[in-house]
Amino acid sequence: MLNNDMKKQAHSHPNYQGFVDEVEQYFATSTELIHDARNQIKNIDFEGESLTVKSFKVPHLLNRVVYSFFRQSKAQKSYLFAEKIGSFTPEPIAYIEYYQHGLISKSYFVAKHYAFDFDIRRPLLEPDFPDRTLIFKSFAAFVYQLHEHNILHLDLSPGNILIKRDDEGQYQFKIVDINRMKFGSLSAKQRAKNFSKLWANNEDLTVMLLEYATLAAYDQDLFVQRGLQANQRNKNIINFKKRLKGHPVND
Questions:
Q1: Dihedral (CA of 110, 114, 115, 116) sign
Q2: Residue closest to 178 by CA, chosen among 80, 95, 97, 63
Q3: Which of 64, 91, 112 is the last residue of a domain?
Q4: Rounded to 5 degrees, what are φ and ψ at 182?
Q5: Are 18 and 87 contained in the same domain?
Q6: Which of 62, 79, 102, 133 has the most Cβ atoms closer than 10 angstroms to its Cβ?
């Protein structure tokens, strides 16, 4: 039930209108919480189908103004970008926005649940993880296809890369958390840098970069050098911020 001063705006596939109408109730009563940080993510059953719903934190006042009048909300961008990049991400279902006193408040992004087996953190962190080299090479090929479609995910971090092993033993990938994207022709330097948020060690990252360079017909030594340098720069920046806050670092 909406407050008198609360307005709702949504866009969805017509088959899911019943879910959109009651999204707050569905989200509040679901117990399948899969992510709980700044934003919350839950898997929710609707008429026998599993949906993944991301609830975005209410922005602070300045950003409420920005997202109400000057920029698309994160929920809307997630939906529109998912439609744009197609099979690279789980199928989008809806975005829902609530406005209070004319400013955006709560918002949700809904997609079909993707039954992945693991995210890329596990092979990155577990030296004995099965098929590590194959996974890294397959991931490089996936990123190459993203780039060839002029797609640049600006937060290509481990938790945003979902992996599923198919019946033939091949690895399939989906990217999530896609409200920060750029589209357009990419330079070799941009492509190499895109691997830098994986927090991979140099050995594993080199496997990916070499595979990518082979597919793209790039100079392998130069591409690997660019990728490793970008990776170390990202680690240095993050660790510097951690040290300032007195947090432990991981090189």
A1: negative
A2: 80
A3: 112
A4: -130, 150
A5: yes
A6: 79
Is pLDDT above 90 for 2?
A: no
From 153, 148, 134, select the one nearest 218 (Cα to Cα).
Answer: 148
CATH of the domain at 177: 1.10.510
Q: Model confidence over 75-118: pLDDT tens digits?
A: 999 999 999 999 999 999 999 999 999 999 999 999 999 999 99
Count Cβ atoms below 10 Å from residue 170 Cβ, excluding itself: 11
Q: 91: domain range?
A: 6-112
The number of folded domains in the chain is 2
- The Cβ of residue 70 has, within 10 Å, a number of other Cβ atoms equal to 7
Q: Long-range contacts for 139-145 (Cβ within 8 Å, ≥24 apart)?
A: 139/163, 139/171, 139/173, 139/208, 140/207, 140/208, 140/209, 140/211, 140/212, 140/215, 141/211, 141/212, 141/215, 142/173, 143/191, 143/194, 143/195, 143/208, 143/212, 144/212, 144/215, 144/216, 145/88
- Written as six digits, the tokens of 31 are 């117990």
149 and 228 in a single domain? The answer is yes
pLDDT computed for residue 248 by the predictor: 78
Work out the mean pLDDT of the chain and round it to a whole number.
Answer: 94
Q: Is residue 131 part of a domain?
A: yes
pLDDT of residue 62: 94
Residues 98 and 155 in one domain: no
